[in-house]
Amino acid sequence: MPPPKDVVKIAIQMVGAIPQLIELQQTKPLSAVLKDVCDAWSLPNAEHYALQYVDGRQTYITESNRREIKNGSILRLTTSPDQEAERLYSGIQSKNVDVKTDSLKKLASLSQDVTFAQEFISRNGLKQIYSIVEEGNDTGEMLAHTLKAFTELMEHDFVSWENLSTVFIKKIVSYVNMNAVDASIQQLSLSILENMVPTSRLLFELVKKEVTLDRLLTHLQVTNAHLQLKAMALLIALLLTATDAERRDMMDYLRQKNIRQFIHKNIIHSSEPLGDEMAHYLYVLQSVSLNLCEHRMRTSMDPYSQEQRELLQSLRQTAFESESEVPASNFSTERRRSLCAKEFRKLGFMNNSNPAEDLRRAPPGLLALDNMVYFSRNTPNAYSRFVLENSSREDKHECPFARSSIQLTLILCEILHVGEPCSETAQAFYPMFFGQDHFFEELFCICIQLVNKTWKEMRATQEDFDKVMQVVREQITRTLALKPTSLELFKTRVNALNYSEILKLRQTERLHQEETLAVPVLELQERLKPELLELIRQQRLLHLCEGTLFRKISSRRRQDKLWYCRLSPNHKVLHYGDVEEGVNSPPIESLTEKIPVADMKMLLVGKECPHTKEKSSGKQNKDVLELAFSIVHDVEEYCLNFVAPTRYEFCLWTDGLNVLLGKEMTSERTQTDLDVLLSMELKLRLLDLENISIPDTPPPIPKPPSSLNFCYDFSHAEQ
After folding, report:
1. How far is Cα 524 from Cα 685, in angstroms, rounded to an integer?
2. Which residues fall within 8 angstroms of residue 144, CB to CB, at 6 or more apart?
3. Which residues of the chain have pLDDT under 70?
4. Are residues 24 and 161 in the same domain?
5. Which residue, among 153, 136, 225, has the nearest Cα to 195 in the 3D structure?
């Protein structure tokens, strides 16, 4: 008979004593449990003791978290958090350097626990930490432990970052700006500043002033990958907290310092593999840079702006005035206006008498004009060739440069997510972005020539404009999916993916769709589905057994703390626990926490999860909502909360957990996988029927013959 829900069987250890095996009554006050344990070992003053997990993060057991104790847990009887906090509070004030260092080391370890942190902070312990940093000149082990302890204590959000003194902050800044200082201290200092920046405008301005972009660029050029990562984290925090104007100035300065080329060469193509955290920061840097185009994208053309009118006129002059033997200024006003309208029509503007009207639509707004001007000034030969080639074609076959440019700019903005907020978890960046200044404009230059090339391949007319732009969008999207490492490679691949290739791909996809729509094939599909769904279920469970690395995300920032979760090979227990950076597949024995599958009650996703309700509801958290899921176990208020690293992992984990709960797999990935498997299976089964049309209805069964006396008598043949 299983034990009652309010009773868990655990072991309790103490140094120098025989362990106790007890049945912990969850309804019994913790103080009474401690009294019984201490009495068994004849220990006085039970209030001076506490229980603590032996493995993992060694969290103290309190009334609030005691329900998380599982059958078979091993606990340790140790000094209570208030006693330990008092002892360490005295230890870090000791005149003995060894005692002080050991106390700070222990403090850095214990400060991860919220109960201990609360006790230490309530004794004004942070004031002592401030004093050690502000007054000390040590830059060795003692300082490293001090900064680590400070970071862990602040992580609990008991104290506001705005309470920090200017002296303390400047001291932390000095460690970042020093050359002769240990890398671990610089990493911790950069991490502290990164946490500080988003919390207050005053702190942002102070850090921005004291830690220059040049200094951060110096840290990015070191070979120490961890220091490089922390420097990038602070740079991203500064960029995300800055105003639009400040962000633009910072990005302009970084561009002058060739940060993109450096990242392309020393980070993306370094000998060290690119970690998830760095991939995320590169994605954010790409997103922030592309979003600088948003203002121009959302601004319509002002026909009364002299600067904008001059840009528009420069397009016409670059294309036509160089070839004109008589300057336009020699003509009368009427004649000049008529000539300009004619030339703007040749340029492909819909409203040739007032071309500014074409640019009133926002998006793409003035960004389309900027792209056209960039193309005309930086590749004048290609620009002139495009315009003049189409001017000499028959009217119905000319490719309108301006109209195509406006639509192409809009397509590129949609594909590159210009104007959208940065995701908190995404890691998808384009390596070629960091290999090229003026990336957006250079990409436009390649793609506008692709438009002209595709237009000719399709032998398009003005009525086919939307069809051509659809094909161009498909060419760009398919090529970007291949993640080309440079714009040159992108250009080669996108030009190789011509209209005939697109037609072949579409035809293949259409034929496949038509094949699968025949009634007999649909019936065969239905017969195959149960077997293939079982295959998908097994794959999902196998993935859970292999496990996944998850990141902890707080409401303040994307954290670099990691934990791992995996299913036991017998599919009966979920094992999980904290791991260090760089550990890809920890053994199941090292994951100290566990949840029996039998105790799992339900799966929550998205907005239903408790950890998404705690977060603010801004656009920034949209991606977290899409990747969040929770397992409710034992009783409903206890949940194990996840934020999947990718949508793919989200689908596999939610499917796998639903399988364990005996429910249907509901993710979009299930349908995709099922479609792929059905397609492969059907192709194999229908291989012999290639080029044979399958009728919708089975052929009629012929009538039975009038006489059945047509059996051959073998007995006569034997004679």
Report:
1. 10
2. 182, 184, 185, 188
3. 1-5, 56, 139, 321-332, 394-395, 511-518, 553-560, 614-622, 635-637, 689-694, 696, 711-719
4. no
5. 153
Please list, residue by residue across 111-137, b when 16 or more beta carbons sit within 10 angstroms of its beta carbon and e when fewer do.
bbbbbbbebbbeeebbebbbebbeeee
Residues of the chain with pLDDT > 90, as a percent, come to: 42
| Residue 236 belongs to a domain | yes
> For residue 385, is it within any domain?
yes
310-321 pLDDT per residue, tens: 998 898 888 876
User: Distance between CA 493 and CA 471 in Å, rounded?
Assistant: 15
Angstrom distances, CA of residue 319 to CA of 312, 324, 379, 388, 397: 12, 10, 12, 8, 19
In the listed set 466, 481, 510, which residue is the last one of a domain according to the structure? 510
User: Do 27 and 168 fall within a single domain?
Assistant: no
Tell me which residue of 433, 451, 406, 425 sits closest to 292, measured CA to CA: 433
Whether residue 452 sits in one domain with residue 374: yes
143 and 190 inside one domain: yes
Tokens (6 digits) for 28:
């019994």
Average pLDDT for the chain? 86
Question: pTM to 2 decimals?
Answer: 0.77
Domains contained in the chain, number: 4
558 phi and psi, to 5 degrees?
Answer: -80, 115
Angstrom distance (rounded) from CA 719 to CA 715: 7
The CA distance from 33 to 46, in Å, is 10
Is 532 among the domain residues? yes
Residue 266 lies in a domain: yes
DSSP code per residue over 182-196: -HHHHHHHHHHHHHH
- The answer on 150 and 68 residing in a single domain is no
Kindly report the CATH number assigned to the domain that includes residue 167: 1.25.10.10
Are 241 and 132 members of one domain?
yes
Instruction: State in Å, rounded, how far the first CA of the chain is from the last one.
Output: 79
Instruction: Identify the CATH number of the domain in which residue 45 sits.
Output: 3.10.20.90
Q: What are phi and psi of 11, to 5 degrees?
A: -115, 140
